[in-house]
Amino acid sequence: MRIVGPVREVIIRPAKRAYRPEETVSFWILALDHDLQIASGTIGTISVKDPQGTKVAIWDQVSFDKGVLAYTLPLSPYALTGRWTITVEVEQSQFFCTYEVAPGIGIGQPDISVAEEHYVELKFGTEMRRRYKPGLPFSGKVEAMSTEKSVRVRVKVYDNTTSIYSQDIEISNGEGTFLVPAIMADSDFIHLQAELVSVESKEIESHYVLAREPIRKWNSSSDCYLLIEGVEHTLQPEEEAYVTILSTCPCERDVHYVITTDGRITDWAPRGHEQIVPLDRPSMEPGPTCKLHFSFQVQSVMAPVSQLLVYYVTPQGEPISDVISFGVKLFDKRVSLHIENREWWLPYQSVDLKVIAEPSSLVCLLGGRSEAASDLRFDPRISEEPTPSPITEEVDFLEAGVSYFQRECSRRGDSGMSAISYRQRGSGAGPSGQKRRPPESLVGGSPYDHLWMWTCFNYSSNSSSTEL
């Protein structure tokens, strides 16, 4: 059992990431509770440390009830150069953000935007599964950052050096999903590859390999597998998500699901499956023998990434399970933003914005900027996990942040009742030598290097215009 505090996330945003001595550091802080609302009734401490770890400023007994809090800290002419840290402490939790102090920062030439004919950046979705189960389908997602509206990508699956599957997908709204009907490989690793095929419906002569990803084989002593399908794309709050469960064994068992977010259970259901759809497939042939269907309602508290765990327990006490991560995008269609149609603005020039929202709602306007130097180039020979270590234990429960432990089961045999203890293979700390990923920030997926707060206001039909 994990005890969580009243605050889920504290967003810390300095006005910029680098300062010179004698400049004034400006930053703002927003604390959110587990329902993604302003954390009310919460007190914390804010401090700023220099590169030597000395606290040069402390704000004690800070109340986060008012939402966005703004702070400033003037730097002396003798401020230490290096990395400074802003720390927010709430009960037993700490949240950090850093910025640099250096004498020459801000003196150089201004950033110059570089325009290219085509700019496309591809990667496989961070919440996509990185393991495959032999004989079962494999679902994945490709994410794209592009200056073009229409991008077509070819996804290939390699077993060693042999291509065993290929599919073209269209990228819309920054992402596209693909489905490999069944992976009949039996290698410890297979590899996914994403190639850029066409831009704006124009075929590219030389296909560019922009992303590669190793996929590890699922190793288990069980002859039964579960596989989750249906939540590969990014979901939105209040959406009804429809899930399909494939099983390689008959579906007489009651199947349960648990949804966890940052290690907390945000939804669960003890009910069994609602509908069984048998497949016309000989039992001796590999693949699913039945399908289960169920649905759940997506909640905003599940953002930005949650894990869906589906499982059942055999009479011998062995859990058969699968887990998949899915993204939730906090986007409210009832709020819209319109900006005047101009190609560029001069420094200190006013920007005219039109915001449409429901009355009595709190509206905050954020600004963002990408550094020209952050124009990433992917090397197809480099992977996010260049030397992944093999895992031979079931870790579905651990990936979902749930520790399965059944202390004692009773069974009746020829000699009467007997008690047997069972435990999920693995431990709550995760596989040996591996660390669990830190919780994902609510704004962690932002492509901007610099974010800043413009203004916040309570919206009503009588709201007056504000210059930015």
Automatic annotation (TrEMBL):
Q: Where is this region: Disordered?
A: 416-442
Q: Does the keyword Signal apply?
A: yes
Q: Which Pfam families match?
A: A2M_BRD, MG2
Keyword list, A-Z:
Signal, Thioester bond
Entry-linked InterPro entries: A2M/Complement_sys, A2M_N_BRD, Ig-like_fold, MG2
Check the record and name the PANTHER family matching this protein.
CD109 ANTIGEN (PTHR11412:SF136), MACROGLOBULIN / COMPLEMENT (PTHR11412)
Task: Quote the protein name from its UniProt record.
Answer: Alpha-2-macroglobulin bait region domain-containing protein
Q: Which organism is it from?
A: Dendroctonus ponderosae
At the highest ranks, the source species' classification is: Eukaryota, Metazoa, Ecdysozoa, Arthropoda, Hexapoda
